[in-house]
């Protein structure tokens, strides 16, 4: 990698190493909960955590499944997360962990806290607990159960584990300070009773640790040195430190917060993504309209573009919203360098070259990628009957329209200059069914007579050689910015009914007949497209990844 990004977190890590803190080790972790698929926001965290590990000699980054919530987690998500981290180009080099593997240790640490008088079993109802907690301006008050003896707490906690009590009957709480100005320190819950099977531990447990208890201890158990999390956990840091210190855990990881990535027009909350998938408002987690890594991948994004985007936006201490156009800029840059150019006609309009010999076929040499000489050339077939895009013809051309119109000339890319000499219409509808043109044999592309210049060059396919394809165009999933949707509104009412446009009967050059799912192309003058998994032999389906910013001959 050429130049490593620099930011305030990398500065802290470098300073810690220089000072010999954590014995000079650097161990980060990426800790997803396996309750959904990863999205572009997670990519920011992956690039940061795995990136720092790669940049520091001997550095490691753990992939840890933060799986302490039995009702929402699933092995299917575990697999998808592993695939996505690898797809982005990172590797945990064997350091894969599950928080659920620590359940026994977490239990032992809780018993330690109870023995020290630092945790107690509370038997208030959830509602009473809320009342006792107080507010931002009003101190909380102690639960009447706060003064239970150590022995009583040990006994109740053991019986909680043994399954003697119903959900909600008791919780284990840290004994910190009900008057703390930081509500997170007002005796937070460490364990809840939950008679639910866990995808890994089955019914071995009927109580589960809270995030605020399990997370710092998982970090400590694994010897994480720098625990990087998003800003909303800043107020949890004193609790993080309290848990590590009071349990006497073996290591003292350092929590550092950074701003989460927000993207305009993107649905990023896992809860909302799950709702879209479950209500079938999109076609699964890998729907190309979603900012999930599987969705972006299916749409045609490359891991390189996503990593370049993450490096570019960097890591800061203040929340900001990033424009979707910036992400699109990075995929354009990447595909411009490597996507082969092809010709495809999305809305075909038939063109007959009246003076071109019937039955003649010419092989034209086409450049695969002007940005990459090594990509070579291919042959495209030219014949008497062609298709062009409907948008490249106007019967009544407005000012500034330089493409084909009655009496006007354009160049057919890699072919000849043609002139429109007639228009055939369907007598019933008045719709144009075909154009008649003449070609100028003196103007073959690349030939020595290629003298004449015309104002526009357009793409085309040969009618008898082109193959039919379906093309899917994507527009933003939301009609407004997610941040602008009032919280009391049903956000699904803001879904864009035009987010997916399916074009059938598109015609693409025959070289695409054997293109494999995932292959990426530039459709000349239109944008970048990739072959979708829904393709069948001989009938490809393409997803538009992104349009071209600058078409070369508008
Ligand atoms: P949710 O809050 O919807 O359950 P989450 O975003 O917390 O989901 P996790 O699986 O817990 O999902 O996230 C794993 C890691 O990815 C966390 O360390 C989290 O900080 C990071 N992460 C998640 N979303 C973003 C984001 N938008 N920007 C940066 N980092 C993120
Ligand atoms: Mg989370
Ligand atoms: Mg979260």
TrEMBL record:
<keyword id="KW-0547">Nucleotide-binding</keyword>
<feature type="short sequence motif" description="'KMSKS' region">
    <location>
        <begin position="267"/>
        <end position="271"/>
    </location>
</feature>
<feature type="binding site">
    <location>
        <begin position="260"/>
        <end position="261"/>
    </location>
    <ligand>
        <name>ATP</name>
    </ligand>
</feature>
<keyword id="KW-0030">Aminoacyl-tRNA synthetase</keyword>
<dbReference type="Pfam" id="PF20974">
    <property type="entry name" value="tRNA-synt_1c_C2"/>
</dbReference>
<feature type="domain" description="Glutamyl/glutaminyl-tRNA synthetase class Ib anti-codon binding">
    <location>
        <begin position="339"/>
        <end position="440"/>
    </location>
</feature>
<dbReference type="InterPro" id="IPR020061">
    <property type="entry name" value="Glu_tRNA_lig_a-bdl"/>
</dbReference>
<keyword id="KW-0648">Protein biosynthesis</keyword>
<protein>
    <recommendedName>
        <fullName>Glutamine--tRNA ligase</fullName>
        <ecNumber>6.1.1.18</ecNumber>
    </recommendedName>
</protein>
<dbReference type="GO" id="GO:0006425">
    <property type="term" value="P:glutaminyl-tRNA aminoacylation"/>
</dbReference>
<dbReference type="InterPro" id="IPR004514">
    <property type="entry name" value="Gln-tRNA-synth"/>
</dbReference>
<feature type="domain" description="tRNA synthetases class I (E and Q) anti-codon binding">
    <location>
        <begin position="457"/>
        <end position="532"/>
    </location>
</feature>
<feature type="binding site">
    <location>
        <position position="66"/>
    </location>
    <ligand>
        <name>L-glutamine</name>
    </ligand>
</feature>
<dbReference type="Pfam" id="PF00749">
    <property type="entry name" value="tRNA-synt_1c"/>
</dbReference>
<dbReference type="InterPro" id="IPR000924">
    <property type="entry name" value="Glu/Gln-tRNA-synth"/>
</dbReference>
<dbReference type="GO" id="GO:0004819">
    <property type="term" value="F:glutamine-tRNA ligase activity"/>
</dbReference>
<dbReference type="Pfam" id="PF03950">
    <property type="entry name" value="tRNA-synt_1c_C"/>
</dbReference>
<feature type="binding site">
    <location>
        <position position="211"/>
    </location>
    <ligand>
        <name>L-glutamine</name>
    </ligand>
</feature>
<feature type="short sequence motif" description="'HIGH' region">
    <location>
        <begin position="32"/>
        <end position="42"/>
    </location>
</feature>
<dbReference type="InterPro" id="IPR020058">
    <property type="entry name" value="Glu/Gln-tRNA-synth_Ib_cat-dom"/>
</dbReference>
<dbReference type="GO" id="GO:0005829">
    <property type="term" value="C:cytosol"/>
</dbReference>
<keyword id="KW-0436">Ligase</keyword>
<dbReference type="InterPro" id="IPR020056">
    <property type="entry name" value="Rbsml_bL25/Gln-tRNA_synth_N"/>
</dbReference>
<dbReference type="InterPro" id="IPR050132">
    <property type="entry name" value="Gln/Glu-tRNA_Ligase"/>
</dbReference>
<dbReference type="GO" id="GO:0005524">
    <property type="term" value="F:ATP binding"/>
</dbReference>
<comment type="similarity">
    <text>Belongs to the class-I aminoacyl-tRNA synthetase family.</text>
</comment>
<dbReference type="InterPro" id="IPR020059">
    <property type="entry name" value="Glu/Gln-tRNA-synth_Ib_codon-bd"/>
</dbReference>
<feature type="binding site">
    <location>
        <position position="230"/>
    </location>
    <ligand>
        <name>ATP</name>
    </ligand>
</feature>
<dbReference type="InterPro" id="IPR001412">
    <property type="entry name" value="aa-tRNA-synth_I_CS"/>
</dbReference>
<dbReference type="InterPro" id="IPR022861">
    <property type="entry name" value="Gln_tRNA_ligase_bac"/>
</dbReference>
<dbReference type="InterPro" id="IPR049437">
    <property type="entry name" value="tRNA-synt_1c_C2"/>
</dbReference>
<comment type="subunit">
    <text>Monomer.</text>
</comment>
<dbReference type="GO" id="GO:0006424">
    <property type="term" value="P:glutamyl-tRNA aminoacylation"/>
</dbReference>
<keyword id="KW-0067">ATP-binding</keyword>
<feature type="binding site">
    <location>
        <begin position="33"/>
        <end position="35"/>
    </location>
    <ligand>
        <name>ATP</name>
    </ligand>
</feature>
<dbReference type="InterPro" id="IPR014729">
    <property type="entry name" value="Rossmann-like_a/b/a_fold"/>
</dbReference>
<feature type="binding site">
    <location>
        <begin position="39"/>
        <end position="45"/>
    </location>
    <ligand>
        <name>ATP</name>
    </ligand>
</feature>
<feature type="binding site">
    <location>
        <begin position="268"/>
        <end position="270"/>
    </location>
    <ligand>
        <name>ATP</name>
    </ligand>
</feature>
<keyword id="KW-0963">Cytoplasm</keyword>
<dbReference type="InterPro" id="IPR011035">
    <property type="entry name" value="Ribosomal_bL25/Gln-tRNA_synth"/>
</dbReference>
<feature type="domain" description="Glutamyl/glutaminyl-tRNA synthetase class Ib catalytic">
    <location>
        <begin position="26"/>
        <end position="336"/>
    </location>
</feature>
């Amino acid at each position: 990698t050429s130049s490593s990004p620099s930011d305030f977190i990398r500065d802290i890590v470098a300073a810690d190493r220089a000072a010999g803190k954590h014995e000079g080790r650097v161990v980060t972790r990426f800790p997803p909960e396996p309750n959904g698929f990863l999205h572009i926001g997670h990519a920011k965290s992956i690039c940061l955590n795995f990136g720092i590990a790669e940049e520091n000699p001997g550095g490691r980054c753990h992939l840890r499944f933060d799986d302490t919530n039995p009702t929402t987690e699933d092995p299917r998500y575990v697999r998808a997360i592993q695939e996505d981290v690898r797809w982005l180009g990172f590797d945990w080099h064997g350091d894969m962990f599950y928080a659920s593997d620590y359940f026994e240790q977490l239990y032992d640490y809780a018993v330690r806290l109870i023995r020290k008088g630092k945790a107690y079993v509370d038997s208030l109802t959830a509602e009473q607990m809320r009342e006792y907690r107080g507010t931002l301006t009003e101190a909380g008050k102690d639960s009447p159960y706060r003064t239970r003896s150590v022995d009583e707490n040990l006994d109740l906690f053991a019986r909680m584990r043994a399954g003697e009590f119903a959900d909600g009957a008791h919780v284990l709480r840290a004994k910190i300070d009900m008057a703390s100005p930081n509500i997170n320190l007002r005796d937070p819950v460490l364990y809840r009773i939950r008679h639910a099977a866990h995808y890994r531990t089955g019914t071995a447990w009927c109580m589960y640790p809270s995030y605020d208890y399990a997370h710092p201890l998982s970090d400590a158990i694994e010897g994480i040195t720098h625990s990087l999390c998003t800003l909303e956990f800043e107020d949890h840091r004193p609790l993080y430190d309290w848990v590590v210190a009071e349990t006497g855990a073996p290591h003292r990881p350092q929590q550092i917060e950074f701003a989460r990535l927000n993207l305009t027009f993107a649905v990023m909350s896992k809860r909302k993504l799950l709702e879209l998938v479950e209500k079938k408002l999109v076609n699964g987690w890998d729907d190309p309209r979603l900012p999930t890594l599987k969705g972006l991948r299916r749409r045609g994004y490359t891991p390189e573009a996503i990593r370049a985007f993450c490096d570019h936006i960097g890591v800061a201490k203040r929340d900001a919203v990033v424009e979707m156009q910036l992400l699109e800029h990075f995929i354009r840059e990447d595909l411009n360098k490597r996507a082969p150019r092809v010709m495809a006609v999305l809305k075909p309009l038939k063109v007959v070259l009246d003076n071109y010999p019937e039955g003649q076929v010419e092989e034209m040499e086409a450049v695969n990628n002007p940005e990459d000489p090594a990509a070579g050339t291919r042959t495209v077939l030219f014949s008497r009957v062609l298709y062009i895009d409907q948008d490249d013809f106007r019967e009544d051309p407005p000012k500034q329209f330089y493409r084909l119109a009655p009496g006007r000339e354009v160049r057919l890319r890699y072919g000849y200059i043609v002139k429109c000499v007639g228009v055939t219409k369907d007598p019933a509808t008045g719709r144009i069914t075909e154009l008649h043109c003449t070609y100028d044999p003196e103007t073959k592309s690349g030939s020595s007579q290629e003298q004449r210049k015309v104002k526009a060059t357009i793409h085309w396919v040969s009618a008898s050689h082109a193959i039919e394809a379906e093309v899917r165009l994507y527009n933003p999933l939301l009609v407004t910015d997610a941040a602008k949707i009032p919280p009391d509104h049903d956000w699904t009412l803001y879904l864009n009914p035009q987010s997916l446009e399916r074009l059938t009967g598109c015609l693409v050059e025959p070289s695409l007949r054997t293109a494999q799912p995932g292959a990426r192309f530039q459709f000349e003058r239109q944008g970048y497209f990739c072959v979708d998994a829904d393709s069948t032999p001989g009938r490809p389906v393409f997803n538009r990844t992104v349009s071209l910013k600058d078409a070369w001959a508008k």
